[in-house]
Amino acid sequence: MTIAVGDTLPNVTLNYLKDGVQAVNTDEIFKGKKVVLFSVPGAFTPTCSAKHLPGYVEKFAEFKGKNVDVACIAVNDAFVMDAWAKNQHVPEGLWMLADGNGAFTKALGLEMDGTAFGLGMRGKRFALYADDGVVKALNLEAPGEFKVSDAASMLAVI
To answer: Which letter does DSSP use for residue 49 in this model?
Structure first.
């Protein structure tokens, strides 16, 4: 079942790279905070690198000005997410979260089968806005599209 507006985000451990691989629980990311989380099918992939992540990098200060944290997640490992962050000049404070085994993505019900493209199991392209861990908005893209999960669309819903 896909997560929906009004649902509480699942409590799962994710990873990021800072002085080695660090574990972070989703409760630490979302509890008591306003957060926009956007999911990309994969780091370094065309739309993700040319449009999705760059839009959030460009508008990061606008989110912070609204007291909203921003997190990017992909079914990749922490080393890949860190290399992509450096490549894309991601500002300090924008979480680059690795859902290496897809546990969080599966718990959300937002996994996709990319085996036809040699990608294995990945996350669908989406963005959500959560307040204290409760989903207030969920913008899920249709397969192959990039219309509603961009930074401007999420700024409009917070």
So the answer is: I
What separation, in Å, do the N-terminal and C-terminal C-alpha atoms of the chain show?
A: 25
The total of other beta-carbon atoms located within 10 Å of residue 13's CB is 13
Is residue 124 a contact partner of residue 41, using CB atoms and an 8 Å limit? yes
Q: Which of 48, 70, 148, 154 is catalytic?
A: 48
**Distances in Å between the alpha carbon of 85 and those of 53, 74, 93, 96?**
9, 12, 11, 7
Q: Does residue 48 carry a catalytic annotation? A: yes
Is residue 13 within 8 A of residue 25, CB to CB? The reply is yes
Question: What tokens does 140 get?
Answer: 């899920």
Burial zone of 89 (CB within 10 Å; 0-12 exposed, 13-18 middle, 19+ buried): exposed
* pLDDT for 33: 98
Whole-angstrom distance, CA of residue 62 vs CA of residue 68? 9
Cα dihedral value 115, 39, 125, 112, nearest 10? 30
pLDDT tens for each residue of 85-137: 999 999 999 999 999 999 999 999 999 988 888 788 999 999 999 999 999 99
Rounded CA separation 69/128 (Å): 12
